[in-house]
Design goal:
The complex is a heterodimer of chains A (440) and B (180). Chain A is built from 24 helices and no strands. Chain A has 440 residues and is mostly helical. The N and C termini of chain B lie far apart (50 Å). Classes of the chains: A mainly alpha (440), B alpha/beta (180).
Chain lengths: 440, 180
């Protein structure tokens, strides 16, 4: 390995260590690493623009604008209160309903915002029921990661994979959503078996809970009724556009003959179109909405792409791919390695930097094998691997962080015990289903 | 704080920023605090009645049913009115007026008692001539809560506003007051 390659590897490892430890903000760590490789000429300017995946960044940007605009209407609080009321005083129903709502919302909007807005309500419900909130919180984490894995826009690893590999929204629905439905059912069964006994309330407590929750008015949560309606409409429109983004030209051509029937929209374009419509229609102050965009997250992604780009430029990724090709006999074997490596590494490193590093590796493997199944293996491993540890995915950190602030301790080891069980079962089932589709 | 705990908090700060505080602020608008969630011990509730209170609403009964309390219904005829009538009319007319008021009061007490008993409340009743504000404040000292109809001691003409006597009672009583 030459000196430049060694520098690229050293910067990569150093940056990932900083990201794991987080004493320095992850965005700053990624930017610092990127600055070093750019300064030393490892990644020249022209190559830098190629390595930064603007598809991912613009998709995240568009969805952040939509979510932050919709948030101002009280949409998420409305969903949280309605879910709590639907449970009708039954702890098991609270667990199941919040898990399902978290999974569905996470599938279409970002996981961090979903759990950030649902967790306070879940804690409130657990307090009213006088029950230990930990089972509800860990179930919410797992549901968020499983739900997010179901769609192209649900989890950052999926966004990165789709943008780089050119996968469509519907392909995710075909290959990953069924796995996630099965995994969700298994998760709920596991949580019931593990925690079900501790979730008993007597009739008086149940009555008290129903009375307290019924006193909550979900309509009062809607701070801006017009914005609420517009947000729901635009989100529904954006989701519809995602379903047809790759064949939008065919549909538009029927009504507008000048549109090229072969035209398709990138997912990032769909998100930005939705953001533009919502900003225009809602008349919300763009300054306020743009201030709420999570710019550190976007710079974090940008920095990571450059650091991984350095590994590509110096041939490190190609060398690893060559070693893998030499030792892997079939696509099925490669699927096994990618799935389990991504799952276990995601639990340690955080799935975003892990995915950023794995994507060019899979591209390089494409020279010698069909890598289409490997994208699904990577998505499966990276998304569900996040369930393994307390720091495996952003949703875990957010929920456990909120719990700690509210005086509820979920230790690293406690989470690890349940998280690893969930990781191995859900990834195992998912891998089995992928194997039946592609590996046989 | 152990390493894992401080690591989680560092990552939480970097991922969430100041958004959690904003979320908590939004929720605080309609979620009860721990302190508010504690149901105070209420064993006796005073409900004053008069000519202007025709009924106790179902919503009020639903709230009161949270407490396993005895309800005291007090029908009060304004002593000031009786005094004025005694000065303006003869004794017989005043007695006739008082008898009619007492008859109405008894009917209202019986009807309201039956309704509350139907909801499982133990009920006591009192009927007397007195001051609608001062006497309620005095009696409230022996009860854990006072529930006031917004039209208590008011005229028939007002529809939605809270009567001035009710507001004054609320300012003076030390026990929790419920306005229905």
């Amino acid at each position: 390995m030459d000196t430049v390659a060694l520098i690229a590897v050293a910067v990569f490892l150093f940056t990932y260590a900083l990201i794991i430890d987080e004493r320095i903000h992850r965005a700053v760590a990624a930017m610092l690493g990127a600055a070093i490789v750019v300064f030393l000429g490892v990644v020249p300017w022209e190559a830098l623009l190629e390595h930064v995946d603007f598809g991912t960044i613009f998709l995240l940007l568009g969805m952040m604008i939509i979510v932050n605009t919709a948030r101002g209407s009280g949409l998420f609080e409305f969903i949280a209160i309605r879910t709590a009321k639907l449970a009708n005083g039954s702890p098991i129903r609270v667990l199941v309903l919040f898990a399902l709502v978290t999974a569905v919302v996470s599938a279409f909007l970002d996981n961090v915002t979903t759990v950030l807005l649902l967790t306070p309500m879940l804690l409130y419900v657990a307090r009213v029921m006088k029950l230990n909130p930990v089972p509800f919180l860990v179930t919410e984490i797992f549901a968020s990661n499983i739900g997010g894995a179901a769609t192209l826009i649900g989890d950052p690893p999926n966004i990165m994979i789709a943008s780089s590999a050119g996968l469509t929204f519907n392909e995710f629905l075909i290959h990953l959503a069924p796995i996630m439905v099965v995994d969700m059912a298994i998760l709920l069964l596991m949580m019931y078996l593990i925690y079900g006994r501790s979730m008993k309330v007597n009739a008086d407590e149940r009555r008290e809970m129903v009375r307290t929750l019924n006193n909550l008015d979900e309509r009062a949560a809607i701070t801006d009724r017009a914005l609420f309606r517009k947000s729901v409409t635009v989100i529904a429109f954006v989701v519809l556009l995602f379903f047809i983004h790759d064949r939008i030209g065919e549909i538009l051509h029927i009504f507008l003959p000048f549109v090229d029937p072969a035209m398709g929209l990138e997912p990032a374009e769909v998100a930005l179109i939705g953001a533009a419509i919502l900003l225009f229609w809602s008349r919300q102050s763009p300054e306020e909405i743009f201030e709420k965009i999570e710019w550190p997250a976007l710079f974090f992604f940008g920095g990571l792409f450059v650091i991984v780009g350095a590994l590509v430029e110096t041939g490190v990724i190609a060398s690893i791919a060559a070693v893998m090709v030499e030792n892997v006999g079939s696509t099925g074997e490669a699927m096994f390695i990618v799935t389990w490596f991504a799952a276990i590494a995601s639990a340690i490193v955080d799935n975003i930097p892990l995915t950023a590093a794995m994507i060019p590796l899979i591209h390089d493997l494409g020279a010698t094998m069909d890598v289409y199944p490997l994208w699904w293996s990577l998505a499966l491993g990276a998304c569900l691997g996040g369930n393994g540890t307390a720091i495996g995915a952003s949703a875990n950190v957010v929920v456990i962080g909120i719990a700690e602030r509210e005086g509820i301790g979920i230790t690293f080891i406690d989470f690890l015990k349940v998280g690893m069980l969930v990781l191995f079962v859900t990834v195992g089932v998912g891998f089995g289903m992928l194997w039946l589709t592609f590996g046989m | 704080m152990g390493y894992s705990s401080s690591l989680i908090q560092r990552k939480f700060k970097d991922i969430v920023g100041r958004r959690y505080e904003a979320v908590l602020k939004d929720y605080s608008e309609f979620l009860l605090t721990d302190e508010e969630m504690l149901v105070p011990e209420v064993r006796s509730i005073l409900i004053p009645l008069d000519l202007f209170v025709h009924d106790i609403t179902d919503e009020a009964i639903e709230v009161l049913s949270a407490y396993n309390a005895t309800i005291t219904l007090a029908y009060i005829t304004d002593a000031g009115v009786i005094e004025l009538l005694e000065q303006a009319l003869n004794h017989a007319s005043t007695e006739e007026f008082r008898a009619k008021k007492e008859e109405y009061g008894r009917e209202l007490l019986d009807r309201t008692t039956a309704k509350l008993k139907g909801h499982g409340f133990p009920v006591q009743t009192r009927m007397f001539i007195g001051h609608k504000g001062d006497d309620v404040v005095r009696m409230a000292k022996n009860h854990d809560m006072v529930a006031l109809c917004r039209r208590y001691a008011d005229g028939e003409s007002t529809d939605v506003s809270v009567s001035p006597i009710v507001l004054r009672i609320c300012q003076r009583v030390e026990t929790p007051a419920l306005i229905y």
